[in-house]
Amino acid sequence: MAIYKTEAIVLNTQNFRQTSLIANFYTRDFGKLSGLLKGIREDPTKFNSTLDTFSLNEIIYYKKTKSSLHLVSSCDLKKDFRLIKNDLERIKRAFSLVELIDTLTVQEDRNEKIFDLAIACLQQLENISN
Description:
Elements: E1 2-16, E2 20-27, E3 31-37, E4 56-63, E5 69-79, H1 88-104, H2 112-127
Helix pairs in contact: 1-2
């Protein structure tokens, strides 16, 4: 099992059992991947992020060789794009962006241009004047 560190945009999350969460990320270095965050719902302070959709985080994960669900051991929020969350139109556009990335990309197919473009789009959405 190898350990990796990368920047990641949260595409979506889902509850897993009583205390954990599965998050789908689009990462700078590895493309789209899924990670299990054990205990995050029971003790949110265990991670430095709430894993809001379209937030930018730095994650450390253990890559499993026989599964596409990896174990995330650390998740630190880098940018939450808070200004997007204050406007329904911006929220809709940001959700459309992450849904498009999730739909059109395959697991662990790295494309740094997609990652950079997604970050640029989110920053642009955040900077739009009302």
